[in-house]
Amino acid sequence: SEQVGVALEVLNSSGDKSQEDYEHLASFLTPYWDWEIQEKALQGFQSAPVDVAAEELLSGWREHSPELREEILSLFFKNRDWLSSLLSRIEENPAIGKDLDARQKQVLLKQSDPEIRERAEKVLNASINPDRAKVLEAYGEVANLAGDPTAGRPIFEERCSKCHQLRGIGRALGPDLAALTDHSNEALMVAVLDPNRSVESKYRTYMAESVDGFSYSGLLTNESGNSITLAMDDGEEATLLRSDLELFQGSTLSFMPEGLEVGLTPQGLADLFAFVRESGPPMKKFKGNEPIVVTPEPYRREIWLLSTTGEIYGDTLVMEDRFNNLGYWGSMNDHACWNFKVEEPGDYSVWLDYSCGSQEGANTFAIDVAGQRVIEEVDSTGDWETYRIKPVGEVTLAEGLNRLTIRPFMKLDGYLMDLKSIALKPERE
Asked: Rounded to whole angstroms, how far apart are CA atoms 234 and 232?
């Protein structure tokens, strides 16, 4: 393995590479080689012709590990002129599109080239399973139901504890539900009722076959230099040497199966969500902050989500007295949530009243509401005492109870912003 690594370094340092050179590099992008070797092989494609990179890096997608998939996509997004070729491959193999993270999807949807934007909208919308969309519609009333966490606990134990752990119940195999920042019924409905719509590659099902004929299926929980480990839904784990792998493939399916709602009433689902929500991080309390269900103001029907009426969570986020703002937004788990009622369904523009010191900036926030996400960079307002009201996006809201969450989206450099309010304004014709 050490000799192979040296040989790859020599090849990468050479000038122009031939087609055979790229094919040789691609032969090391398999689970039979340890990650260090795969990483060095991938480095050789940084200046490759786009058609060569697309063919050699994207053709064997199912055989790539989660880490390799992430690095390949990162390489394509660093070379923006490669994005059209990436979309072409996603059109041919939609499984590749399922590994795009939210930021990458936003980049595609905001391209200046209208053709790329239209193609991106088409391939990203194609990821919605129409059968699961019907299930979501059938359980639509859950969005406005109040749940009973006590009644939700036995439902969690029966249906979720095999892969999730809350309050010491269950097995910590899937995502940490207590760490979720968006506990709204709408977000949890999509996660439970359509688990394959948006799932990180590390929570997908992987299949392996050994040279002695045994088959395994489960989550890829560990990769070392010479082995992989799969955790299976029966509670067992299988560790296989890379040299013993006959086949290793990732699927497009979440380890969490479809159909968990079978036999469960809408009220039962609301009870389950209430248990998950109650098991999350504790809400912080500050003088002048009293969370309420916000209603539209009577004249323009705008919905004003003030710092004084929202829920505050996280390590460093606080309510500051001078401007009645949320400040010291310096931790990735800092977030604020509002519950509000919509009386006029339709399209709403999203506005922020915020400040950001000149030494800060270039941080990114995400707003999640009604199954939609707005992602934007925070522009500096010059100093922390200068506030600006700025439109940041649009969302479509249904009538009834909704929940909005705002949080940092990417690793923070300094503080995110000081936030006074978020306004949701109906779009008028």
From this structure: 5
CATH number of 293-426: 2.60.120.260
Q: Does position 345 have pLDDT exceeding 60, yes or no?
A: yes
Q: What is the DSSP letter of 30?
A: S
Residue found by looking up tokens 């809350």 in the block: 166
Burial of 168 (0-12, 13-18, 19+ CB in 10 A): exposed
User: Which segments of 211-334 are extended strands (E)?
Assistant: 215-223, 227-231, 237-241, 245-254, 293-294, 303-306, 311-313, 318-320, 325-327
* CA dihedral sign of residues 408, 413, 417, 423: negative
Check if 201-254 and 293-426 are the same fold: no
Largest CA distance in the chain: 74
d(CA 140, CA 185): 10
Report the distance separating Cα 368 and Cα 74, nearest Å: 24
Q: pLDDT (tens digit, 9 = 90+) per residue, 409-424?
A: 888 889 999 999 999 9
Which listed CATH number (3.40.1350.10, 3.40.50.150, 2.30.30.100, 2.40.160.40) goes with 201-254?
A: 2.30.30.100
The pLDDT tens digits of the residues spanning 117-175 come to 888 888 887 666 778 888 988 998 888 888 898 999 999 999 898 888 888 898 888 88
The pair of three-digit structure tokens given for residue 78, joined into one six-digit string? 């660093």
